[in-house]
Amino acid sequence: MLSSAVLISAALLSVVSAAPPSSGIAAPLAEVIVNCKVPKTVALTLDDGPYIYARNISDALTAAEAKATFFLAGNTWSCIYQDENIKTIQYLHEQGHQIGSHTWNHLDLSLLTRAEVNYEMNKTEEAILRVAGLKPAFMRPPFGRYNNLVREVVAERGQKIAFWDTDTEDSWGATIERSKETIDEAIARDATSLHILAHDTYATTAYELVPYAIKQLQGAGYKLVTLAECLGEEPYQWTQKPGVKNDTWRCG
């Protein structure tokens, strides 16, 4: 995961956002999703990919007849347009997992202007639409940080913000034992449903935490589904045929 201190490109910084004239009417704010709504469901969500462990996670879930939601970043761990990443995104979608947006450079959106927030969201959503033909209905702000400006932009884009109610702490540098404890603690709460945050960019998450979570959660009577399924909503604003890669599919 990149630090929020990552510099925005000079080209982006040159964009000036002009505030629209005030009408005296508050702008709509995007809904922030914290909890699932469908009883005995779990939305396991994985941030920061696509990365080399995503297929392993998908296969473990598929073998257990489970699904997850992958919030993809455009240019964080690797460029979303790399051939292997394109294949991975298409594979995840084919396996029935949900795809969401996690912005382009993984910046703290609460520190950006309206134009910059739109840029961060546009770039990744354009890539997801090109690669998989999907227009996400949900986005997750990096670090879980947002303000009313971010909520306004997300609402204008017809989306909702996905937060979480259980953090596996894998991105904090937690040991695998601690991450497993967060699953056990969530089950012990006997919650109606769970919305879990993890990251598909760590080998321990892919090979140890996800299999453990599947076993424990299913053993406790939960069904692992996509975020949209746990809410009883649609995962995408619309879908279309994926594009064909050309010279415009690049991160540089």
From TrEMBL:
GO terms (BP aspect)? carbohydrate metabolic process; cell wall organization
Keyword set includes Iron: no
> What is the protein's species of origin?
Pterulicium gracile
**Mode of membrane association:** Lipid-anchor; GPI-anchor
Which terms in the GO cellular component ontology are assigned?
plasma membrane; side of membrane
- Which UniProt keywords are present, listed alphabetically? Carbohydrate metabolism, Cell membrane, Cell wall biogenesis/degradation, Glycoprotein, GPI-anchor, Hydrolase, Lipoprotein, Membrane, Metal-binding, Signal
CDD domains reported in the protein's UniProt record: CE4_ClCDA_like
Claim: Heme is one of the keywords in the record? no
InterPro entries in the record: Glyco_hydro/deAcase_b/a-brl, NODB_dom
Please provide an example of a Pfam family that matches this protein in its UniProt record.
Polysacc_deac_1
Q: Which cofactor does it need?
A: Co(2+)
The protein depicted here goes by the name: Carbohydrate esterase family 4 protein
- The source's superkingdom equals Eukaryota
